[in-house]
Amino acid sequence: MHPPQTIAATARRPAHTRLLWILTGLVLTLLAGRTFLPAVGVPLLLLAQVLFTLLHGARRYGRPAVTVFVVVTLVVSNALENLSILTGFPFGVYHYTMDPQVFLVPVFIGPAYVATGYLAWNVATVLVGEVRRGSGPLTVVGTPVVASFAMVAWDLAMDPTLATVRRLWIWENGGGFFGVPFVNFLGWSLTAYLFLQLFALYLRRRGPEREPAATATRVQALVLYAATALPFFLTYLIGERTTVTDAAGHTWRTADIYETSALTALYGMVFIALLAALTLARQVTNGADSRPAPRSSDGRRPR
C-alpha cells in the first residue's frame, strides 16, 4: 500500500498542474495586453510571472531551492546593477529614470530578472540537462552558460525600445545598437551567468533528489519563454513611427528599432524555444520507445 502522504501528494498534482496552466494563460494574456496598456499591464504581468516562478519552482525543486533562486537572483542582479550605475562595470554608464528604487535600481528590475531568468533556466535544462545533487561539471556549468544566452536574447530585443524609445533608462554615452552599448550585453551575460551558476551549485550540493520534471511542467516554461517575445512583434506592428535621439545625440527611427527587435526576438528567443521544444519532444519519444513492448495475449512480446 502507498503511504498516506504519497497518496495525498499524488492527489494534489492535477490541481497544481491546472493552477500552473491557468497562470500560464494569464501571463500570455498580460504579455499581449502589455503592448496596449503598459501602465496597467506591466505590474500585473510581473506579479503573475513571479507567482508562476514560485509555484513552478516549488513543484520542480521544492520551496527551499526556489527560495534560494529568488534570493540569489535579487541580490546578484541588484548588486551588479548598482555597481554599474556607480562605476560603469559591468553594463556600462547609465542611470534609471523610474521610481521607486532599491538603492539606485527600480524595484521592478529584480522581479524581471527572477521571472525571465527562471524561464531561461528551464530552457537550458532541456537543452543541456537537469542539475541534480551530484551532477557532473559539464551539466553544472553548461546549463547556466546556455541559460545566460537565453536570458540575454531577451535583453537584445528589449533594450533599444525601453531605453532609447521609452527612456526608462538612459545610456549616457549612447551605443551602436540603437543607442545601447555592446558592453551592456556582456554585462547581462556575466550577471545572468553568476546567479544561475550559484543556483546550479546549490542544486548540486543541497538540491532535492527528485525525478525529472513532468513533460507538462517543462512545456509550461517553454511556452512562457517563447511568449515573452510576443510584445516585440506587436510593437513592430502597431508601434508609433517617429524618430528619437539618444543621450549621445544620435537620431534613430523607431520603425527600425521595432523591426530589429522583432527580428532578434524571432531568430533569438523563438529559435531557442523551438530548439528546446524539439529536444523535449525527442526526449519524450525516446523515453516512450525505450519502454518494454507490451506482451501479446500468449505472453510473448511482439517481434
Automatic annotation (TrEMBL):
<feature type="transmembrane region" description="Helical">
    <location>
        <begin position="262"/>
        <end position="281"/>
    </location>
</feature>
<feature type="transmembrane region" description="Helical">
    <location>
        <begin position="136"/>
        <end position="157"/>
    </location>
</feature>
<dbReference type="Pfam" id="PF04240">
    <property type="entry name" value="Caroten_synth"/>
</dbReference>
<feature type="transmembrane region" description="Helical">
    <location>
        <begin position="19"/>
        <end position="36"/>
    </location>
</feature>
<feature type="transmembrane region" description="Helical">
    <location>
        <begin position="65"/>
        <end position="91"/>
    </location>
</feature>
<feature type="transmembrane region" description="Helical">
    <location>
        <begin position="103"/>
        <end position="124"/>
    </location>
</feature>
<keyword id="KW-1133">Transmembrane helix</keyword>
<dbReference type="InterPro" id="IPR007354">
    <property type="entry name" value="CruF-like"/>
</dbReference>
<feature type="transmembrane region" description="Helical">
    <location>
        <begin position="177"/>
        <end position="201"/>
    </location>
</feature>
<keyword id="KW-0812">Transmembrane</keyword>
<feature type="transmembrane region" description="Helical">
    <location>
        <begin position="42"/>
        <end position="58"/>
    </location>
</feature>
<keyword id="KW-0472">Membrane</keyword>
<feature type="transmembrane region" description="Helical">
    <location>
        <begin position="222"/>
        <end position="239"/>
    </location>
</feature>
<protein>
    <submittedName>
        <fullName>Putative membrane protein</fullName>
    </submittedName>
</protein>
